[in-house]
Amino acid sequence: MSSSLTARGLTDRSTTSEFEAKTTSNNAEGNGDNGITNAAMVTTAQPNGLGPGSTTAKLKSPPPEQQSHIVRRSLIAASFWLLVLCLGIPIWWKTTTIYRANLPLNQMMNWADGKSCSPVFPIRIVIEAPSLTEQEAQSLISITQNALDAMHDFPGHRLRLEAASQTSLGGIIAPHDHENNALIIRLTPGDIATFEPASSPHAHLPIFEITYPPNSKPTPEAKSSQLATYIAAQLRSTFAEEQAILSYFLATSTISSDQQPQGSHNRIDESLSKRMTRSMKYSGTYHLTFSLFTSGSNPSSWDIDSAINQYLRPVLDMLKPIHNFTIDTQVQLYAVPGVQSQVLTKEDLSSFINAAEWPLSPSIGGAPTINFVVYMGNQTIDLYSGEETSQSWLVPQWGSVYLLSPPAATHVPSEFLKQPVLTFASHLLSLLGTPQSGSLPMRLSTLTRVRSVDMLLRASSSLGSLARLSLALPSISIPPSVADGVAKSIHHLELACSNLGSTKSLEHARIAETEAERAFFEKSMVGQLYFPDEHKVAVYLPLLGPVGVPLFTSLVTEFKAWKTRKL
Amino acid sequence: MRSFLSYLIPPLFIFSDVLASDYHEQLNLKPLPQSSLLASFNFRSNTSLSQFEAHNFRYFPRSLGQILQHVGTRELHLRFSLGRWDAESWGARPWDGTKEGGTGVELWAWLEADTEEEADLKWLTLTNALSGLFCASLNFIDETRTTRPVMSFQPEGDHGSTLDNMHLLHGVLPHEIVCTENLTPFLKLLPCKGKAGISSLLNGHKLFDASWQSMAIDVRPICPLGQECVLQIEQTIDMVLDIERSKRPRGNPIPRPPPGHDLKCNASKPYHSGDTCFPSDFAEGEDWSLDRIFGKSLKGTCPLTDPDAPPVCIHVPERRDIFTTPGASEMKSPDGLSRCYQVPSEGDFSMMLPRMSREGDNAKTVADETVQPETPLLYAERSFTGHGQDRGGVQSILTNPSPDTIVEFVYMESLPWFMRIYLHTLQARVEGTSGAKDDIVEEIYYRPALDRVRGTQLELRVRIPPASTVFLTYDFEKSILRYTEYPPDANRGFDVAAAIITILPSTSPGAPPSRQKTSNLRTTSLLLSLPTPDFSMPYNVIIFTSTAIALAFGGVYNLLVRRFVGADEGAEVAGGLKGKLTLLVAKLSAKFKGAKGKVE
Q: Please, which domain of life does this record's source organism belong to (chain B) (predicted)?
């Protein structure tokens, strides 16, 4: 380029001569080599004559350019542009583009907004009334159902009353086992002495026993009956806590307000929200770690195995359909608590666990760990709030601690551990988020439903976050595994939503949740953070600047020339 | 020395005794020449396999036990080492070298797996989990640093029939710097946690200030005859303390020259006089006490140990004076070379070894202060030879000091992939014995490196004749790494792991007991410098090539699309800034031409 510049600089100064004119016309043929020979000729020509400063020469117009030259020049410019557009840009695009798998964004946002699924649980309640006639039972059911529908204001529950199959109400109901029934109400006529209906929950089965006075038997014509009202009120109070928890989940999730229940349930119960934040994140399996920490060297062994088998195993067996548990135990001597004072106040309890020194590392494997710590020391808790017992407290989402004064022997027998293990059992239930009222089987079936809703909402909100993230960061790469995870998650969400309330739906919701989480936390999506746009500019500019400018100027010149020719 | 070793390494028949008590700990002290002190801490706890499988952890640490169960580890050996064992003056290594590793971190384990791929996956999980537990970068033991030794390691535990689907994997991190953050988790694994017993002496300031130290964790199943199998975890810390350095007070650790009257002078020098002094460092033994050396006293005993086993033993000649705090009882061993102390279970314990006067009526000699160290079976050193950034060589010098016995050992190198060795250059040259043959290498196992996939594994079985030295040499080529493969401190060099020498037990029936066991030895690690680029290179290359391309393209393209006309035929250029610039250029070039013409 510089050589051609000098060539032209010199041509400027050299004046008229036939020889010169001929060279320039040669040059106009557009041959690059000619330009250089031209320069050489000019330099040789210079000494023969005309000194510097002879700018007074007269200008002539250049000879008319041949049409073929003009066409050739346009073709050259066009071919370069063709090359850039058809080869350069596609290659650049192909090599630098970020792979973004197609995500079903609309579907994801619908799930997050709760438009795809409204959590409604059909709860089937069976009334067993062997003493009533078919007609009586039927009328009792319809009256109670009416009463329930009238007082019911929470859309998430759909309580359906049915008569038990033994009393056979025709072939309307498919034969079903106990698992499909949330509750069985067993009506037994009381003796003459009973004036009011009385109820008692069964300890191990989801059965509600109601004894009613014989005179409150409903008649087929009656619009209301004392017994029916009583049953309806009982059912309502039974499911009140579950409703509160469900509406809490709906309120705290991202589901838009029109899906939320209206009215009194809308306000979030303070104590309920406290209880919910306490509970662990749902998982299919939990590791339970029982640790004996001793302030000195005594005791150094304990009979925890038999204590667990005696006092905790029944609870774990009940929980088996929902959770699996693995158990490990350890003994640690010379453990110094995080708080040294003799009497622990409520503030001390949160820093009692000495996380730096106590080996309470979470178990290896994916499942979360729940810690149960028995601390043998002579510290006591200051009882100014009556909330907890004076010996133990629950650490939200972590576990529970029980203080014991050390026995004289080096071995702790299992009887000594009865109270701690029983406390741990109740703490375990509340750490798992089990409702507090009702019989244990009722609480567990509630837990299944509550957990499925929880998982469903979590998965939906993860999907929503992922959708928002992919919209907000256009330069983030989305690998196919993310799209795969999203598809799987949506599939399982649909399955979970279609049969809500069963253990199967809990399983589906759990899979959907893990898939959604995996898609959201995909590792390769973070890579873009390290390659900012400034970096690209720094790399491209030295090449694209000098190449782009001549291409553009030639395009503009050609365009102008073409325009003038047109005129 | 032999009796000392038999004390340190409990032969198998002691195990039955050990099983009665589930936890055992002992501190062995041994003054070494040149005013050094070897302190060997040994902690051993057992758990029955049934309790282990039921996840009931009592003495066995739960955090480690869970990892072992999760990845199906049958036997585990983990080493953290620092410094160099000076075999020339300190003699044979403690525990026959079986409880030490190469500089940095070393890990080997037998994993239960059906296929090699499964074993690799489990190994990955194991290294990651241990990395978290011990605050070490063990997760950097990837496939390029993992080997499967063939001849060098043998399982120590009783595995029975499960041995068939066990995979041995071995990994080293020579660059890892062992420090306090590795000691804290190590102590957490102990039942008494450094609060009572001999572990109360351990403290990071002293341990990592030592001339040489090695922390070891060994987990192995042991099945005594007729009893239930137990899983044993043995934790060992060995350190060689410089007595004078350790005695410096914590608050004033800067060494200062002693005042003139305290200087110990070597009076044998001809120029020795009142004002000239040649300091003699080790002429007179140091006085030391346990609490000064370790910075604190021993706090009682760990109550879990067998009360009959003495927790502290010292290996000194019988004539050495030792004073202890009251309450401790002394037990001398029959051979007069060591004594053990029963420590009171509560309260502090310390022992004092006064300076023994070399003059006067009751003059003592060096032999009264320290037991002469035993000569090791083999001396080994390894170094780089050659020069330049392209090729290099490695030379290992292995000396058998014994005048009459042949030493047979396995020499194992696991080299990084970027050190490509030429196996044909491997040579073994014997010096010392006249007429010795050079074909002393009996067996070679060689697994060549694959770039970025695995390193070189070289195992040699060698027999050294008595009183001779073997020079083992080979050449290698240094490869150039990719830009991103260089560490941040690339000019420091790359650490090459220590060579592991496994001395095989003697096969002759009359061999002494110390020769009937496998013993180990490791060379120091090496620092390999590779050709290192200028790390701003990629940007320079991008800008340079871009500029070159742009220049060429612009010139060619302009020539192609411009029409060239006569100067008088073009449009008027003199006006405006462009014209002025053109004139200026023309003037300058004319001047330049004129000057050039004059020169010519």
A: Eukaryota
Please check whether residue A504 is in contact with residue A126, taking contact to mean a CB–CB distance below 8 angstroms.
no
Say yes or no: B442 and B483 in one domain: yes
pLDDT mean across residues, chain A: 73
* Helix or strand run (H / E) with residue B109: strand B104-112
For tokens 């390193």, what's the residue? B455
Residues in B touching A359 (Cβ below 8 Å): 61-63, 188-189
A53: confidence class by pLDDT, cuts 50, 70, 90: very low
B99-112: pLDDT as tens digits: 988 899 999 999 99
Single out the residue of B41, B31, B345, B35 nearest to residue B203, CA to CA.
B41
User: What residues of A are in contact with residue B557 (Cβ under 8 Å)?
Assistant: 80, 550-551, 554
Residue of A nearest to B548 (CA): A543
Q: Please tell me the predicted confidence (pLDDT) of residue A449.
A: 80
Of A21, A326, A357, the CB nearest to B566: A21
Which tens digit of pLDDT belongs to each residue from A335-383?
A: 888 888 878 887 788 888 888 888 887 777 778 899 999 998 888 777 6
**How many distinct structural domains can be found in chain B?**
2
Q: What is the pLDDT of residue B338?
A: 87
Nearest Cα to Cα of residue A159 among A482, A501, A406, A455: A501
Question: Distance (Å) from the C-alpha of residue A210 to the closest C-alpha of chain B?
Answer: 45
Q: Which of residues 27-56 of B touch A (CB under 8 A)?
A: 54-56
Whether B207 and B317 share a structural domain: yes
Tokens of A59: 């200008």
Considering the domain architecture, whether residues B337 and B226 belong to the same structural domain is answered as: yes
Whether B2 shows a pLDDT value over 70: the answer reads no
Residue environment code for B226-256, b if the CB has 16+ CB neighbours within 10 A, otherwise e: eeebbbbbbbbbbbbbbbebbbeeeeeeeee
Look up tokens 């037994």; give the residue.
A188
Query: Contact at 8 Å (CB) between B397 and B471?
Result: yes
List of domains in chain A: 1-55 (no CATH), 121-250 (3.30.379), 280-431 (3.40.390)
Based on the fold, state whether residues B223 and B291 are members of the same structural domain.
yes
- Please report residues of A whose CB lies closer than 8 A to that of B551: 1, 546
Residues B279 and B386 in one domain: no
**Residue B490 and residue B455 in one domain:** yes
Q: Which of residues 177-236 of B touch A (CB under 8 A)?
A: 188-189, 191-193, 195-196
Confidence (pTM): 0.77
Domain end point (choices B309, B343, B369): B369
User: Per residue in A219-235, pLDDT tens?
Assistant: 656 666 677 777 777 77
Q: Which residue has the higher pLDDT, A303 or B257?
A: A303
Note whether B428 and B337 are same-domain residues: no
pLDDT at A158: 67
- Enclosing domain of residue B411: 379-528
pLDDT-based confidence at residue B56 (cuts at 50, 70, 90):
confident
Q: ipTM of the predicted structure?
A: 0.77
